[in-house]
Amino acid sequence: MNWAGPFDLGIYGGVNNWFVARRAFATSIATVAQMAGLVAMPLIAQLAMRQHGWRGGWLAIGSVTLLIGFLPVWLLMARRPEDLGLVPDRRVADTAPPRAAPADLREPSFSRKEAIGTPAFWLLLLYTVLVYPVQAGVSLHQAAHLIERGIEPTIAATIVSVFSLMSAAAAVACGSMPRSLPIRYPLALIGGFLAAGTFAMISVSSTSQGYFAAALFGLGVGGILTLLPIAWADFFGRANFSAIRGIALSVQVLAQASGPLISGALHDWTASYERPLQCFAVLSCLSVLSALAARRPKWRSPLASRPPEP
User: Fold this and answer.
1) Which domains are present in the chain?
2) Residue 101 and residue 78: Cα distance in Å, rounded?
3) What is the CA radius of gyration of the chain?
4) What pLDDT is recorded for position 304?
5) Binned average pLDDT, 10 residues per bin, the chain of 310 residues
6) Strands (E) located in the chain
7) Which residues pair with 90 in a beta bridge?
């Protein structure tokens, strides 16, 4: 929960507050930055531990977090652009009154109660429940499965590295996604990548097959991490993003925790990772249907219901 609260919720809450039209691009940068940090932190800790032991490793991690993660945000970042007289995506706010925009192009502003009452909320929540056990269950046991399939441990480690690299590539690709494209289609596509990667992982028998399966699965995972925060913000707006996504994030953490448990229990039962991978592939296919069914809910501004002033 230390990750899910201040990092996942805080980072994407801030990004979605500051960006609307360029939300996909900004979110992709944030996702890639997180992945770069996950790669860099173990290396920093290892270098410090070689010189100063495990205490030095923890001090190095804490110092880097304080200097790079905490202080710049505390000193320089504002919660919302409106606090500085700005508007999202632009340097200064227009002084002229905004022209009327079509209802489907206006940024929504759902309260948490209103969001919970929409089918879109429950479909996105269902999508979360379906994809995150797959993400965690396959990722954690990927190397063990490859070794069981006869691949050398060193090669298995490089295959996992390709999985991480393709996750970053997917995050970058999501940044160039046309904003006019309904978010349900990219969500369905990455669910398809998860399904294809998981199916391919079942029958891995060579290094090339391992790289191929890991690449497909990595594209799906990178897409999930980038697109789901965008979907919640696009559907329900930025005013109550954290309150709405906080519910989904609690479910997401439980779903992630269930993935490795399911994989481990089925492996102990069958002495193989084939059955858990089959289950995860089915969940991925169901996530495609859930994504395609999720449509942006209609929102009507309270101002629209007011009678015109005399």
Assistant:
1) 4-84 (no CATH), 110-293 (1.20.1250.20)
2) 28
3) 21
4) 46
5) 61 76 79 74 79 85 84 77 73 45 60 91 95 90 86 84 84 82 92 94 88 91 88 87 85 90 90 91 95 87 46
6) none
7) 87
Q: Which two tokens stand for residue 13?
A: 């809450």
Tell me whether residue 81 is exposed, middle or buried, using C-beta atoms within 10 angstroms of its C-beta: 0 to 12, 13 to 18, 19 or more.
middle
The residues, any chain, with a CB within 8 Å of residue 4's CB and separated by 6 or more, are 249, 252, 253
CA dist., res. 169 & res. 23, Å (int): 17
Q: Are 231 and 211 in contact (CB under 8 A)?
A: no
Residue among 124, 225, 206 nearest 166 (CA): 225
What's the one-letter identity of residue 177? M
The structure's pTM equals 0.80
pLDDT at 212: 92
- Can you read off the two tokens belonging to residue 271? 């002495």
237: alpha, beta or left? (left if phi > 0; alpha if psi -120 to 50): left
Q: In residues, how long is the chain? A: 310
